[in-house]
Amino acid sequence: MRRLFKQSSFFALLITSLFILPAQAERIADLYSASWPVESQSTTVRQKAMTNAFAEVLIRVSGSKDVVYNSDIQAALPNAQNYMRQYSYKRLSAAEQMVYEKPLLLVATFDSQAVKKILQDASQPVWSENRPSGAFWIAIEENGSRRVATDTNDEVTISLNRAASRRGLPIILPLMDLEDKSQVTVGDIWGRFTGPIKRASERYNADYVVTGQLSQSGEQWFGRWSLELGGSVENISSTAASKQQLVADLVDQVADKLASRLAVLFSGEVLAVEIYVENIHDLEAYAGVRNYLSNLGMTESVKVLQVKADAVLFEVKVLTSPQNLIDAINIGNNLRRIPTNQGLNGRYSFSWRG
Fold it and tell me: How is domain 8-26+265-352 classified at the CATH fold level?
């Protein structure tokens, strides 16, 4: 048997923490804000942009591009200003104007509760603010040379950030500093060799990894990306007339695959799932597990049922199916599934990685 929690002071802290620990997890702060490029600040232009920004928020929160074709959603779109909390304008840099093709951005923020209600009343899924982050390793072939998209202000990076923001995806672009270059080359990324890329991604603590290439032939741009998610690899591809359009389509495909696992239709029924977590040696680990489970978006409450050895048994009450909860846990890096008796008597076992 593994060692017991012997320190009485730690056990006392653990019991106390059941009542006082707040839920803390990284969330997308601007999930209910969207921007739309405009040529002026006129009322007519603003109203049209407001409707487009509202549609973008509904797509982002639902996780589905097709949500705007729902009849109830279409009825709500013309009333975008009724759900708006505030708006402002941002003047774009020269590099940004090449991507957005307009001098200004209208930035609008909408009421979160109203957006959720519109989606739920229309029987559409809701994807929570707590979302997995992805490391994007993208190689671009242009003018006879290849480079990697990094966190700089070039056209591909701006397009990636714009497309990811539009779908509510927190993404990480590599630094390609000495540490990265010692582990991965442009050729590795171009060839989508998962071994070195996965090792290089560890420093970024990403929940999934996207590796791919962008290239041009004639007037067409081609993209081939691989998405490594929850232990499986899926390939996606697209063609477009521009880099911006190509990147947007490929990011849309990544978002669709994530949302298919994480965006949920909330039911009126609350279900209890037992989550048994090993490798909890101290209060910090316990707090990490509890907060992680509390912030999965579909969770109503988390309660401790049992503490023994270096493990804790939690009861997690969810507003959707237990499988949606397990899918959400599997995507992240924090809990590693222990493949024994999974789902037996409603209990699932994991090991905490922190």
Answer: Gyrase A; domain 2 (3.30.1360)
State the DSSP string of 11-74: HHHHHHHHHHPPP-----TTTTEEEEEES---HHHHHHHHHHHHHHHHHHHHT-GGGGGSHHHH
Question: DSSP 3-state assignment of 207?
Answer: coil
Phi then psi for residue 228, to 5 deg, are: -100, 115
Residue 17 CB partners (closer than 8 Å, separation 6+): 283, 286, 287, 290
Contact 209, 137 (CB under 8 A): yes
Q: Is the pLDDT of residue 13 over 50?
A: no
Give the three-state DSSP class for 274.
strand
The backbone torsions φ and ψ at residue 23, rounded to the nearest 5 degrees and listed phi first, read -85, 125
pLDDT beyond 50 at 22:
no
Q: Please tell me the pTM assigned to this model.
A: 0.81
Q: Which of 196, 227, 248 is nearest to 331 (CA)?
A: 227
122's CB contacts (< 8 A; 6+ apart) are: 67, 70, 72, 73
Under the banding of pLDDT at 50, 70 and 90, the label for residue 76 is: very high
For 103, the token pair is 């001098």
Confidence of residue 231 (pLDDT cuts 50, 70, 90): confident
Domain 134-261 class? alpha beta
Domain ranges of the chain: 8-26+265-352, 33-121, 134-261
Residue 342 confidence (pLDDT): 63
Distances (CA, A) of 175 to 96, 146, 153, 190, 194: 21, 16, 13, 17, 18
Contact 230, 330 (CB under 8 A): yes
What is the rounded distance in angstroms from the CA atom of residue 290 to the CA atom of residue 81?
Answer: 38
Which amino acid, residue 107? V
Question: What are the C-alpha distances in Å from 208 to residues 49, 143, 198, 353?
Answer: 33, 30, 9, 15
Q: Are 111 and 249 in contact (CB under 8 A)?
A: no
Which pLDDT value is given to residue 269? 85
